[in-house]
Amino acid sequence: MELYDRRKQLVPNALGIFNPSTAVRAKGATIWNADGREMIDFAGGIGVMNAGHCPEPVVRAIQEQAARLIHSSFNVSLTESYLDLAEKLVELLPHGEATKVMLTNSGAEAVENAIKIARMATGRQGILCFTGAFHGRTMMSMTLTAKTKNKTSCGPFAPEVYRLEFPYPYRYGAGLSDEAYIEQQVRRLKDFFYYQAGAEHIAAVIVELVQGEGGFTVMPPAYLKALRDTCNEHGILLIFDEVQSGFGRTGEWSAFAHYGIVPDLSTWAKSMGGGMPIGAVMGKAHIMDAALPGTIGGTYGGNPVCCAAALANIQYMEAIDINAHGRRVGKIVRRRMEAMQAKCPAIGNVRGLGAMLAFELVKNNDPWQPDAELATKLVAACEKKGLIIISAGTFGNCIRVLSPLLYKYKNMAYKQYINGVWCDALNHNTWEVLNPATEEVVATVPYGNDDDARMAIEAAHQAFPAWSKTNAFQRASMLKNVAARIRQNASDFARITTQESGKPLMEAKGEWMVAADLFEWFAEEAKRTYGTVIPTSRNNKRSYVIWQPVGVVGIITAWNFPVWNLARAWGASLAAGCTIVAKPSEYTPLTAMLLTEIFDSEGFPPGVVNLVSAEAPSVGDALMDAEAVRKVHFVGSTRVGKILMDKASKVNTKLSLELGGNAPVLIFPDMNVEQIAASAVGAKFRNCGQVCVSPQRFLVHQDIYHAFCEAAAGLVAQYKAGNGLDTGTQVGPLINRKQQEHVAALVETSVSGGAKVLAGGNIPYPKGYFYSPTLLKEVEVTSPVFTKEAFGPLLPVTPFRNFEEAITLANATEFGLASYIWTKDLNTALLASEALEFGIVGINEWTPHGTEVPFGGWKQSGQGSELGHDGIFEAAAMPTGLAKSTEVVVASAKGALVYDVDGNTLIDMAGGIGVLNAGHRPTTVVNAIKKQLDKVIHSCTLVTTNEPTVELCEMLNKVTPGDFPKKTLLANSGAEAVENAVNIAKYYTKRPAIIVFEGGYHGRTLLTMSMTSKYGLFKKGYGATVSDIFRLPAPNMFRPFKGMSKAQYLQHCLDQLDHALIAQVDPSAIAAIVIEPVQGEAGFVPIPAEFLQKIRSLCTQHGIVMIADEIQSGFGRTGKLFAIEHSGVAPDIITMAKSIASGMPISAVTGRAEIMDTLHLGAVGGTYGGNPVACAAAIETIKILTDPAFVKHADQIGEIMRKTLESWKRKYSLVGDVRGIGGMRIVEFVKERDNNTPDPDLTLEIIRDAVSKGLILIRAGLFSNCIRLLPPFVITTGQLKEALEVLEGAIARAHTKRGL
Question: Does 1194 or 269 have the greater pLDDT score?
Answer without folding.
Answer: 269
